[in-house]
C-alpha cells in the first residue's frame, strides 16, 4: 500500500503534523495567559519608567553606579522602575528603585543559557516569550531610559522609536544616557538615515542624549508638565493594537 493511502494515524508524517498543530494551539493559550497575568500584576505600577542596558556591566563599573543613582532618584520622585530583571544594568536599575520609595519591577525572561534574576525586585514577572515581555515594557512606561548596552538594548531602543514614530503609542521621552557612548549612533542617524531620506529630520528629536541623573528627571517632568503622566482613553485604545 502507498504511504499516502495509509490511515491518517498510520502516516508518521501526518501524525507529527497533528502533534505540532496541537502544540501550537497550546502555545497560543500560553501567550494569552502571559499577557493576562502580566497586565493584572502590573496594573497598579503607573507612572513607571523602563530602564535598559547591558547585562554584562559589572557592579563596580561607573555605568552600574550611574544607573543605580538614576533609578533611586526616579523611585523617590514617584516612578516605579521597570527593568529586565537580570544582572548588570538591569540589576542596578532594580537595586536603585528597591531602596527608593516606589516599586522595583523586574520583567524576567527564560533563556536557554539564562540570566539569573536579581534580588532587588518588589514585583517579579517571568516570561517565556520576548514579544509579550516587550509589550509590557512599553505598555506601562511613561519614559524609556537607555543606558549603554548591546543588541538587546538597541532592540528595545529602536522598538520604542518605531512605535512613537508610527504613533502606535503616545510620545514618551526616550532618553539615552552617556553622550560619549551614543555619539556614534546619533551621528550615523544624521549622516545616513536623515541624509538619505530614510527618516524625517525631526525624528532625531525623539531621542534625548543626557549625562547627568538630575537631567533625566528634568526631561521627563518637562515632557509631561502640561498633560500628566496617565495615558488618555484614546491613547489606551491605541495601545490595545500594539
Short structural description:
The protein is of the alpha/beta class and 242 residues long. The protein contains eight helices and seven strands; from the N terminus they run H-E-H-E-H-E-E-H-E-H-E-H-E-H-H.
Properties at a glance:
single chain; 242 residues; alpha/beta; Rossmann fold
H-E string: HEHEHEEHEHEHEHH
CATH class category of the largest domain? Alpha Beta
Low-confidence stretches: none
Overall outline: globular
Care to count the β-strands?
A: 7
Q: How big is the Rg?
A: 21 Å
**Mean pLDDT metric:** 89
Identify the strand order in the major beta sheet: 4-3-2-1-5-6-7
Q: What's the number of domains?
A: 2
Count every helix, treating DSSP H or I runs of 4 or more residues as helices. 8
How far apart are the termini?
A: 51 Å
CATH topology of the largest domain: Rossmann fold
Amino acid at each position: 500500500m502507498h504511504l499516502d493511502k495509509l490511515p491518517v494515524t498510520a502516516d508518521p508524517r501526518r501524525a507529527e503534523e497533528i502533534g505540532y498543530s496541537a502544540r501550537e494551539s497550546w502555545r497560543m493559550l500560553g501567550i494569552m495567559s502571559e499577557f493576562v497575568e502580566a497586565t493584572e500584576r502590573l496594573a497598579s505600577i503607573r507612572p513607571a519608567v523602563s530602564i535598559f542596558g547591558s547585562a554584562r556591566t559589572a557592579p563596580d563599573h561607573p555605568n552600574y553606579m550611574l544607573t543605580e543613582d538614576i533609578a533611586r532618584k526616579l523611585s523617590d520622585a514617584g516612578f516605579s522602575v521597570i527593568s529586565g530583571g537580570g544582572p548588570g544594568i538591569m540589576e542596578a536599575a532594580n537595586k536603585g528603585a528597591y531602596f527608593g520609595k516606589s516599586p522595583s519591577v523586574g520583567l524576567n525572561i527564560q533563556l536557554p543559557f539564562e540570566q539569573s534574576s536579581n534580588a532587588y525586585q518588589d514585583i517579579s514577572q517571568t516570561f517565556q516569550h520576548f514579544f509579550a515581555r516587550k509589550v509590557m515594557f512599553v505598555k506601562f512606561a511613561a519614559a524609556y531610559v537607555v543606558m549603554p548596552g548591546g543588541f538587546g538594548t538597541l532592540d528595545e531602543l529602536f522598538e520604542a522609536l518605531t512605535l512613537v514614530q508610527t504613533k502606535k503609542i503616545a510620545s514618551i521621552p526616550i532618553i539615552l544616557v552617556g553622550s560619549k557612548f551614543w555619539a556614534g549612533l546619533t551621528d550615523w542617524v544624521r549622516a545616513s538615515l536623515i541624509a538619505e531620506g530614510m527618516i524625517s529630520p525631526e525624528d532625531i528629536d525623539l531621542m534625548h542624549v543626557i549625562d547627568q541623573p538630575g537631567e533625566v528627571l528634568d526631561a521627563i517632568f518637562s515632557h509631561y508638565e502640561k498633560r500628566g503622566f496617565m495615558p488618555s482613553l484614546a491613547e489606551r485604545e491605541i495601545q490595545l493594537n500594539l
